[in-house]
Specification:
The structure is a single chain. This protein is an alpha/beta fold and about 475 residues long. The protein is built from 15 helices and eleven strands. Strand 7 and strand 8 form a beta hairpin. The N and C termini lie far apart (about 100 Å). Belongs to the thiolase-like superfamily. Chalcone/stilbene synthases family. Its EC number is 2.3.1.-. One of its GO terms (cellular component) is membrane.
Length: about 475
């Protein structure tokens, strides 16, 4: 009688441990495939056409022209980005509701079809749909339009996200991850894009016309699963995800807001406090995620170096010396192989590079994505990822850190592990051989540099 009791006491805890481990294995979040949207070539915003669009704005004066010239030249954006159709039709001052809907339909009818066909998953197999489009709220919603077009199941779980800005795709992944923790053997489809048609700014406020220089048409469809049987087919495995929200701080909340100017034109206001708000959010986010993604040896080294720096500064101040003001930088490359950075602008990429002590090789995917596709809002991360894949940088076991920012103000990050060698190239496959180009110089200065020499008293708007 004693033997069965002892056997039970030993085996039952092992059984519980096995069940816990087995359940954990079914909670993993994998990316099976993803697709980035590339509009047709007739929607490319080259220098000549951008100049025409700017000249159509009757509210601009010489000072606004000079500001725009400087902003565009320093933006890091090239001549092959894409704009909404209504701009090519000359209707940017009076866009219609249908313009925004058409922009979304063109994207999702192209990208969802491709990702489902390539992965061999039928629309009726999708269990979860998460759609994020920050500045378009239609009736019925974009998610409902997707369900109708692809005839998705009646019991599909749907999440429609608006107002989350450029960090929305990581938020969408977080929603999927939490669903995967409660149910097994699911497929989830994340759709991330932004509507520019109804949000093109036609006024002359500098803080608001800047958005026209940076944001471009784009979108991504990401197919995820927690099916253990498909592990060998997956591309990436989610290792860690962290969200930081500074919306309780007024200076962070108001640095990125959609509002009306004095003339009633609606636009996206980017405040001068934005770089500081972004830095604070980034620092807080990295402070929390570092212990989860970096090896212990690097954390210990950082603590020791930080201690000695503080001690030397304290000793220097007591002795009358200035001490050292250098920060003890943590080396993220000890736990991360690739950095997938949101293409919020050249200044954003440069700032992250300085804060994380990254090389030009590390920043190249973000810089080239900004140059080729511009800031496509929340979908930009997946264009950056596509660049890494097209350059055959992604090998099995590599770890990728995604960093994104968004209005609110938010900084969201996640770490992915590459599950197999990758090199298809996605949206880059037709042009990757041209990147990086010999120069990223913007031709606007060569064509419109004469504006800097104009006299405000005699300046006439060019026709």
């Amino acid at each position: 009688m004693v033997v069965p009791v002892y056997a039970f006491l030993i085996l039952y805890p092992l059984f519980l441990l096995w069940r816990w481990v087995d359940a954990k294995r079914d909670q993993e979040c994998y990316i099976l495939d993803y697709e980035c949207y590339k509009p047709s070539d007739d929607r490319k915003l080259d220098t000549e056409f951008c100049g025409e669009v700017i000249k159509r704005n009757r509210h601009l004066g010489l000072h606004e022209y000079k500001f725009l010239l400087k902003a565009i030249v320093n933006s890091g954006i090239g001549e092959h980005t894409y704009g909404p159709r209504m701009v090519f039709d000359g209707r940017e001052e009076n866009p219609t509701y249908e313009d925004g809907i058409l922009e979304m339909e063109e994207f999702f009818k192209d990208s969802i079809e491709k990702v489902l066909t390539r992965s061999g998953v039928s629309p009726q197999e999708i269990d979860v749909l998460v759609v994020n489009v920050s500045m378009l709220a239609g009736m019925p919603s974009v998610s409902a339009r997707i369900i109708n077009h692809y005839k998705l199941r009646d019991d599909i779980k749907v999440y429609n996200i608006t107002g989350m800005g450029c960090s929305a795709s990581v938020i969408s992944i977080d929603i999927v991850q939490n669903i995967f923790k409660t149910q097994k053997n699911l497929y989830a489809l994340v759709i991330t894009s932004e509507s520019l048609s109804a949000n093109w700014y036609s006024g002359n406020e500098r803080s608001m016309i800047l958005a026209n220089c940076l944001f471009r048409v784009g979108g991504s469809a990401i197919l995820l699963t927690n099916k253990r049987a498909l592990k060998h087919r997956t591309m990436f495995k989610l290792k860690c995800l962290l969200r930081t929200h500074h919306g309780a701080r007024d200076e962070s909340y108001y640095c990125c807001v959609q509002k009306e100017d004095d003339r009633g034109h609606v636009g996206f206001h980017l405040d001068k406090t934005l770089p500081m708000a972004a830095t604070r959010a980034l620092v807080d986010n990295l402070r929390e995620i570092s212990p989860r993604i970096l090896p212990i040896r690097e954390l210990v080294r950082f603590m020791i170096v930080s201690f000695f720096k503080k001690w030397s500064q304290s000793s220097g101040s007591k002795g009358g010396g200035g001490g050292t003001t250098n920060r003890a930088l943590i080396n993220f490359k000890t736990g991360v192989d690739h950095f997938c950075i949101h293409t919020g602008g050249k200044a954003v990429i440069d700032g992250i590079g300085v804060n994380l002590d990254l090389s030009e090789y590390d920043l190249e995917p973000a810089r080239m994505t900004l140059h080729r596709f511009g800031n496509t809002s929340a979908s930009s991360l997946w264009y950056v990822l596509g660049y890494m894949e097209a350059k055959k940088r992604l090998n099995k076991g590599d770890r990728i850190l995604m960093l994104s920012f968004g209005a609110g103000f938010k900084c969201n990050s996640c770490l992915w592990e590459v599950m197999r060698d990758l090199g298809d190239g996605n949206v880059w496959r037709d042009c990757i051989d041209d990147y990086p180009p010999k120069t990223l110089a913007n031709p606007f200065m060569e064509k419109y540099g004469w504006i800097n020499d104009e006299d405000p008293n005699t300046f006439v708007v060019p026709r």
